[in-house]
Amino acid sequence: MTTYPDLKLYIGGAWRKTAEELPVLNPADESIIGAVPLAAQSDLDDALTAAAEGFRVWSRIAPRVRAEIMLKAAALMRERVEEIAYAITLEHGKPLAQARLEVVRGCEFFEWDAAEGQRAYGRVIPSEPGIRYVVMHQPVGTVAAFSPWNFPMSQPCRKIAGALAAGCSIIIKAAEETPAGALHIARALHDAGVPPGVFNLVFGVPAKISGYLIPQTQTRLVAFTGSTAVGKHLSELAARHMTPVLMELGGHAPVIVCDDVDPIAAAHLSATRKVRNAGQVCTSPTRFFVQQDIYERFTKAFVEKAQATKVGNGLDAGTEMGPVANHRRIEALEALTADARARGGRVLTGGERLGNRGYFFPPTVLTELPDDARALREEPFGPMAIINPVRTVEEAIEKANSLPFGLAAYGFTHSAARADQIAEGIEAGNVGVKDSGYGREGGAEGLAHYMTVKTLSHRMVI
Ligand code: NAD
């Protein structure tokens, strides 16, 4: 079945519509494909009440049983992959094959965390006879989560899986522009038998929802993925209430290309990665620093590959890159291109919207930009690459580290010494160092954010 779902909130184990709605657009043709309900304060109050009860129930369920429900939900999402992928392509624009991969990735987050939640071991600290010191991990409580529009399924899955595996309840505000992914997660959890209130899905006016949920004493963790500016604002709000945060924010990933590699192969791989999700990935490779000897050949091959990318509707067979998600991205990319031109940079390909219906923007390559060009300082969050020559690896590392971001970074070399130099020298953490955020998502480290550490000292005999 390939239809766009009827969008609803999911609160306390039940679906609901609301009085206010926003249209959802297909970015490939700007047609209206659905209406997303916006939560009022009373809906949020209901979600908080439900989440309090959900936490009470879920935190007392054996981790093995929690895992069974999560795995069942993941299995249902796998069964429904075609239906979910179709909805994601309609609302987001990415090619169907990428949407399918995203659904599978979302399921993998559930599967990994379901297992990891059963291994949230504590410690027994050796001490004198008759006294036992025990360190145990407990779920933090209700999580308020905010997920972005670039991965409608896998981004919410990450946060939901971490929270549920740890034994927390969660209220997630997923992206209003791409709500179907989160809706399908809710459907799968509901069908898998998650108790009411453990998982709650809302949409609404983002600032109103965060402004109401974050100050609640019941909220014990704020998990956000999105822009650095919004992340800083939400962190400030949380700090006023001493509420911990998990922030996955913007990046502007550097790529260091050393002169000992095949420039054609490196360029082809880079250009392919650049256009994935139309460049709207926080870890998208963007600032290329290429050693002088191979700079011309690398750039030429990159431009050829970029120009050969088949841009179109994500539902059409053979499409390699869909539209960008919304009109804001077109404006941002055109502004960065205009600024690059004004500062003497070269636009080797792309730089202007394709057509006037649908948010299509071609793969764009800018070169010879001065360090203060906006495209080198602001995350383009689109199919834009900036390629500049460097003399040495040291110079490349210095330029790579020159921004306040520190999310992802890449390097191409066949030399173990240079690989080590890049690995040691680059300031990036893949989920947050510097302005790119705080904390980790995924793995044992990710789960730890959803848990609190309790130390007990137990005297056996008084
Ligand atoms: P934006 O800053 O307006 O919004 C970013 C996200 O934050 C959106 O999902 C939005 O709904 C949410 N948001 C905004 N204000 C909020 C508030 N007060 N409370 C709660 N949530 C709020 O930017 P945008 O135009 O939607 O996206 C473009 C920028 O966002 C990009 O430049 C990129 O840096 C960043 N972004 C990053 C990721 C990521 O994976 N790290 C994902 C999507 C967007």
Write a structural description.
By secondary structure, the chain is an alpha/beta fold. The protein is built from 15 helices and 19 strands. Helix 8 (228-239) links the parallel strand 10 and strand 11. It is globular and about 75 Å long. The model has no long low-confidence stretch (mean pLDDT 95). Nicotinamide-adenine-dinucleotide binds at residues 146, 148-150, 175, 206-207, 210, 225-227, 229-230, 234, 248-250, 282, 328, 379, 381. Nicotinamide-adenine-dinucleotide (NAD) is lined by residues 146, 148-150, 175, 206-207, 210, 225-227, 229-230, 234, 248-250, 282, 328, 379, 381.
Total strand segments: 19
Strands of the widest sheet, in order across it, are 9-8-7-10-11-18
Number of helices: 15
End-to-end gap: 67 Å
Beta-strand content? 15-25%
The small molecules bound here are:
nicotinamide-adenine-dinucleotide
Low-confidence stretches: none
Helix content: 40-55%
- Structural classification: alpha/beta
Mean pLDDT: 95
Largest sheet: 6 strands, mixed
Which term fits the overall shape? globular
Radius of gyration computed on alpha carbons: 23 Å
